[in-house]
C-alpha cells in the first residue's frame, strides 16, 4: 500500500455505498503499518493479530488482539509495529452521510449531530471488558465479513449492523460537551498540509519551522516525535508517491516526472525512488502495477 501521504484523495466505497474495509498485515517501506494521516470519514480499526501501537493525535496506545479504536473524522492517526510481533488490522471506513436519513429526524438531532462534536481529542478505545464493548467488537467483525464476502443484501446487513454499533456506543459513552483542542495535533497538521500543498516546490526546514514558530532544531525533534520520520524523509515519501502515480498514469519522461514532483536531480530521484519502491522508476513503469492505496485507511 502507498501509505505516505497525509490526506487521502480517494472515496471510501462509492457515493451509493460510502463504506469500505481494508486489511493490512505487512509494514510499508518506512517500517510502519501506516503513516500519520487523516480523512473526512470516520473509522473503526480492529486489531485481529498483534499487539500494535496506534497513534491518535499526539498520544499513543498499545492495542491487543481483539481490541478496536474509533477514529473520528479529521483525526490524525497512524499505526506502528510493537517490537517484532506479527500483526493484522482491518479498518472499517465510512462517511457519516451513510447513516443519514432523507428527512431531518430524531436520529439526526439526538445522535448524528452529537458525532459532529467528536474532534481530534476524543478517540474511543474498545476493549472486551464490558457487555456493550464486547457487543460492538462482535458487530464490527460481522460488518467486516459482510463487506469482504458480499452475500445477498449485504448492504442492508452492514448498514443495520453499523446502526447497532452506534446505538451501543452512544448509549454507553458520553461525548464531552466541551471539545479540547490538542495544540501539537493542530501544529503538525498545519505542517503536513503545507507539505502536501507545496511538494512540487523547494521546501526548506526553516520555513516549516516558522509555520509553528519553532527553531529548526526544536522543529526537527517535534516532527520526528509525532511522524516517526524526519521532515526530509516525509517530504521525499510524498514526492515519491506522486511520482509513482505519474509513472502509472502517464508516459512522461522520468526527468520530467522528477522535476514535476520537486526533485531537481534525476540521479537523486532514482536513488530515492528505489529506496522506497525497491525498484527503479523505469522498472516500476514496466510492471504497470495497479493503482496503490493512499496512506492509511
UniProtKB/TrEMBL annotation:
InterPro entries in the cross-refs: AraC-bd (IPR003313), Homeodomain-like_sf (IPR009057), HTH-like (IPR037923), HTH_AraC (IPR018060), HTH_AraC-typ_CS (IPR018062), RmlC-like_jellyroll (IPR014710), Tscrpt_reg_AraC-type_HTH (IPR020449)
Pfam families documented for this protein: AraC_binding, HTH_18
GO molecular function: DNA-binding transcription factor activity; sequence-specific DNA binding
Keywords per UniProt: DNA-binding, Transcription, Transcription regulation
UniProt xrefs under PANTHER family: ARAC-FAMILY TRANSCRIPTIONAL REGULATOR, HTH-TYPE TRANSCRIPTIONAL ACTIVATOR RHAS
Domain called HTH araC/xylS-type: residue spans: 189-287
Transmembrane region(s): none
Protein name: AraC-type DNA-binding protein
SMART domains: HTH_ARAC
Amino acid at each position: 500500500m502507498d501509505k505516505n501521504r497525509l490526506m487521502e484523495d480517494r472515496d471510501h466505497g462509492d457515493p451509493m455505498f460510502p463504506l469500505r474495509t481494508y486489511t493490512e498485515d505487512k509494514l510499508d517501506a518506512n517500517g510502519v503499518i501506516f503513516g500519520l494521516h487523516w480523512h473526512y470519514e470516520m473509522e473503526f480499526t480492529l486489531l485481529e493479530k498483534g499487539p500494535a501501537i496506534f497513534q491518535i493525535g499526539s498520544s499513543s496506545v498499545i492495542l491487543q488482539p481483539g481490541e478496536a479504536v474509533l477514529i473520528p473524522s479529521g483525526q490524525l492517526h497512524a499505526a506502528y509495529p510493537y517490537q517484532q510481533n506479527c500483526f493484522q488490522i482491518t479498518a472499517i471506513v465510512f462517511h457519516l452521510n451513510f447513516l443519514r436519513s432523507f428527512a431531518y429526524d430524531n436520529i439526526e438531532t439526538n445522535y448524528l449531530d452529537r458525532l459532529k462534536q467528536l474532534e481530534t481529542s476524543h478517540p474511543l478505545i474498545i476493549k472486551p471488558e464490558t457487555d456493550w464493548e464486547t457487543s460492538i467488537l462482535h458487530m464490527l467483525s460481522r460488518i467486516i465479513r459482510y463487506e469482504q464476502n458480499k452475500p445477498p443484501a449485504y448492504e442492508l446487513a452492514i448498514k443495520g449492523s453499523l446502526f447497532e454499533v452506534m446505538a451501543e456506543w452512544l448509549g454507553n459513552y458520553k461525548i464531552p460537551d466541551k471539545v479540547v483542542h490538542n495544540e501539537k495535533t493542530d501544529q503538525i497538521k498545519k505542517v503536513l498540509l503545507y507539505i502536501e500543498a507545496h511538494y512540487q516546490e523547494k521546501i526548506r526546514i526553516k520555513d516549516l519551522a516558522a509555520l509553528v514558530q519553532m527553531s529548526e532544531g526544536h522543529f526537527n525533534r517535534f516532527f520526528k516525535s509525532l511522524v516517526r520520520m524526519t521532515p526530509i524523509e516525509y517530504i521525499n515519501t510524498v514526492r515519491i508517491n506522486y511520482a509513482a502515480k505519474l509513472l502509472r498514469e502517464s508516459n512522461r519522461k522520468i526527468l520530467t516526472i522528477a522535476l514535476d514532483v520537486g526533485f531537481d536531480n534525476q540521479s537523486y530521484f532514482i536513488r530515492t525512488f528505489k529506496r522506497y519502491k525497491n525498484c527503479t522508476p523505469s522498472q516500476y513503469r514496466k510492471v504497470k502495477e495497479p493503482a496503490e492505496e493512499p496512506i492509511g485507511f
